[in-house]
Request: fold
Amino acid sequence: MAAIEAQVNFDFRHPFVGHLPGYLAIGEAAGTDQPGWDEYTFLLMRQWHGLLDTPISAEEQLLHEFLERHPSLLPGSDSVDGTSGHLPFPMAVISKPKLPGLSDRQPDFMWIATDSVALYPILIEIETPHKKWFYGDRAEIHSDLTHAQGQLAEWRAWFNRGRNRTAFLDDYDISRELRKRKLSPRFVLIHGRRSDYENSESRLQKRAELQREDERLMSFDRLSPANYGELYSCVHKTQDGYQIVAVPPCLGLLQKAEDYRRSNGWDHALDNCHDMAPARRDYLKEQIKIIRDDPATYGRTHYARIVKRGSLRMRGQL
Reply:
């Protein structure tokens, strides 16, 4: 990894939010092949921590756009309770998801994670690294934190109204098979920095008592790329279905047509992934078209190997 020559980009808006200096050169060297995951995560974490450590990270919209381009940083793709071994639905994080009838306090992001028993809508609120957990040098909870937790409470109350659960399943086109599983929402708040509490025993003790059973409270320092993150894109849910917002420059594919038919706008999102080598972008556009249009032919003309990483079995990653 020491051979990678890259500097953290301190102008985080230009040439675009989420840019990873040095990654394009790695991709161009790989041609149409998928660049290594280790190189991607190394450069991503350099850039992410560089952003967190600058005053510009006080702008929540900038953080949001960065995370749209690199959704593997967001917790919850395989549940927040452990590694489920199942891919999220629809193999993407949903940006600015709407809860029917709740228009003014929508989450920033949502994964719909699964395991063999439950379906986990994981609603994520991001604040900024500059928000506080505690006041001054005391162990008194800061109003920044209590306000943010109030948003989680509002989403919990929404799900606790029975008819809203049916509306959720309908609005997000949840498949018949997944509807058989228990709907078990989780609520995640990403707030402030670890330095606000890690050196105080009283603050650590109070922090441990803050979250409810279905909540996860974490600092921005805790975010790191998830397993299988090269598979995940970012989407919007519209009346016309799922629309791709962004793909990560490390994007890999699976030979499963349903995962790519659920979402539209692949070509546009790939064209806007400027850290991905042009040869790789063109290759992925071609492969996604084949997968979507004629998956039977695709399966006959490609080596359908089984790849096992951790507890997740993936068929024919490209």
Confidence is low (pLDDT under 50) at residues 299-316. The longest helix spans residues 143-159. Residues 75-222 form one domain.
